[in-house]
């Protein structure tokens, strides 16, 4: 990566009060903030990590956009997935360069952004939603961060099945995920990775029953909790409030198994007891 | 990815009792387990996710290796990083296809494995350790999972500095990380991502002081806690024991700042209060 | 309290390796431990908090028994409640001097011990169990710690109702607590405090439905998590493992309400959102 | 306890929106709320747990005051201790009927309230603060909940020592608790229980060093985290936000030990590893 901001780069501008803007700098344009006007031509040519000043003297830092901020700054049409969950999802689904991934629903595109980032130019994200307006907003969000070329947005009710076959993994972020396990199984490579986020315990119980029926195995259910700390070295302590819950994460593998196996569950249980 | 196991594939074999083996299947060879002998030629040609039987009739699942299992199954010469931390690290350091990443120390190669996986063929991981034997073991571990071609292992005391310039991010997993911030800054692109794992609060306090001195900003300190649940839908509950602590994670950005700025810290504080 | 150990006192003896013994010291007797023999007459007359030596020279501390240790040292016939939950239960049920309290089941007597301690001489604990052998063991446990005079043990299936009326609070530690809410309501003073511990989410859901039907209000459901830290000041950090789950705690008040009230639940919801 | 509200009783009135009032009902008086006027004479004579209506038709529940609400409803002159911590403190310090307890500082009187409740008529709480105005406010708070007769408020800088000898336990809720361990030791019975709440890790480290110097042993450091759940049985899930931190709790015992003992710390370490 170039050490100097170029015309056309995606830039994260951070001003006092921790106000973040992620924008594409275009020579000749201006950016209006609560703390004054920034001229693109004063940003271009500076090294990343340096400071610039607005017309009225306020300081801003110019940074390469953080992936976590790309996710958090997404204009929301619906509830978004948090970085705390997304990092763990990517790892557990083994999302990496070249992978083919299905997600449903698209929502605001927070997870879509992270998936597109992780699969790279050689990979492919297939993102399903049946709400035209919400998906349109997500397409704009992905364009804004220049990751839209890696994503195929599909406007469709997934009850009718997915259009792809043998994808490496599928992530469902829909309330009634348990209704679509046959569809997921049909689209997923055998052995492939399945993941799901559900807010309530009731939904998880229904999903677990369906996962057993549809021969998903090596199932794990968990929650990710992040505890932040204050960063003053002389007063080191956790922050006062934390996120108590976003959702339960459920992971499993798409297995091929003889139906008669009487000890299916026991055999494919993940051992999460420490 | 091919739907059928090929000669030479890396395969994860899981038998009853949740016993995992990650091996390369080579036609003509055998694999000896506690539950009997498996012949490679009976594995090759099966679809992923299917079951095979050992010579004495025990069932095993044949799966694409999970990234989390690649990490957890690493033969350990030292304490390893856990998947719970690694997912969050990759996301916060924006490690993705094509990135150039430094890590120190190499240790057993758990994080190295995940970094190599995430940067893909186009990226590069520079992994430092000054303990020859431990690094040699890590090299073997990376070879075993066929990710060694993406990693440059460097046997060197990082007190003498890193050999690279302008890498996208650096992760330090050494007890006295606070002693190497000048070296990190010299190797990191301006604006780049810095991360660190430290087990004790005392170490974090020292690091925070040094990060302020060396103009790392937008600092965040946190812990990742994962709560696993039992997967029986009729008895849904968290598991009895959980991992209480592995380490504190510290993240920051490499800034270029005027030394006179009196409100440096206030300006570059991340707002982690919910 | 006397500063000096008296003949007949209940004493907590702690030897190396954190081995605890809670015993009544009686002049003329001996106590055999893994680290040698202790003579009661060498304990009597020493101040609390001092050390004594066994016949073979090992050091032991002589202490007033801690309430938490009284609870943890109970010989177990069944799963016990942990101090982490008990402290919060006592506070939420407002158990204090002079209160009349019902608990079911008795179990090993861990909660019974804490309740008996907290209600004092003027209070009364009614402890129900229908397993003769288990309750007999609990009676011995309470005798051992000299709190049995405050407890009435009742061997009875609570399906048949409780023998008391208008007690201040009731705590149910039985798997199918949701089956006994009518019985609880009949024994509890109107407005009184109801509490329950249940291991699984499924049980909690059933209980919540029954609590609504039986007009228990101001319901709260929570879990208590304790994070312990290592106590070396130069290596301050959480311990590696923690208890991930014992059970969900459910609290509510016994209300008298007009059946027609259409917004019953909304009206009596506790606001636990921070 | 009487089943019917009497003239002069302390009553908790809860109206829609979870608005709590804890007041003494006196015949002939009125109580003005945001949801209308309540007449004491309409409250008196009703059973606890029943509903009354304000002059303009809003419903209120009439309840025995919950100890947790007595604590939470205290008008605050300073940061208060939370019920989550208080329950665990009472249990670990073995505060019960008849105990003599010192606390410093008084603060708003939240812990004072719980201590006074738990020690009963036969016990005694000695509460120190050197800020006249704050302590005066606490005295009023204790009077309001009719527990002031069990508390001796002392306006004094504890650097000069406590006035009592051989109390059963001491709890310090002052920022520089580590400065007063000699004073604590002088007032505490040998073997007695010491407790402390400190917000930052830095303070805990200083305290741990001083506790070792002053021969406090069997030290435990922990945090109490409470996870609340939403109470709708069909949407069972943790609440979105939780309290991330109030303070670290530190407990220890006042020991008498030979100064030469080279393995003091090892000998008196509590084993909190699970």
Describe this structure in words.
4 copies of one chain form a homotetramer. Chain A is built from 8 helices and 14 strands. Chain A is globular. The model of chain A has no long low-confidence stretch (mean pLDDT 93). Chains B and D meet through helix 7 of B and helix 7 of D.
Topology, element by element:
Four copies of one chain form a homotetramer.
Chain A (H helix, E strand, L loop, with lengths): L9 E6 L3 E6 L5 E4 L2 E4 H4 L7 E3 L5 E5 L3 H6 L10 H10 L7 E5 L5 H10 L4 E6 L2 H13 L6 E5 L11 E6 L8 H7 E11 L2 H13 L2 E14 L11 E3 L4 E7 L9 H4 L7
Parallel strand pairs in A: 7-8, 7-10, 8-9, 10-11
Antiparallel strand pairs in A: 1-2, 1-6, 3-4, 5-6, 11-14, 12-14
Gross geometry of chain A? globular
List the strand order in the largest sheet of chain A: 9-8-7-10-11-14-12
Task: Tell me the β content of chain A.
Answer: 25-35%
Greatest interface: A-B, 93 and 93 residues
> Helices and strands of chain A, in N-to-C order?
EEEEHEEHHEHEHEEHEHEEEH
**Cα end-to-end separation of chain A:** 42 Å
Question: Averaging pLDDT over every residue of chain A, what do you get?
Answer: 93
Low-confidence stretches of chain A: none
Question: Taking Cα atoms only, what radius of gyration of chain A do you get, to the nearest Å?
Answer: 21 Å
Major sheet of chain A, described briefly? Answer: 7 strands, mixed
> What's the total count of β strands of chain A?
14
By helix and strand content of chain A, what is the structural category? alpha/beta
Number of helices of chain A: 8
- The share of residues in helices of chain A is 10-25%
Oligomer: homotetramer
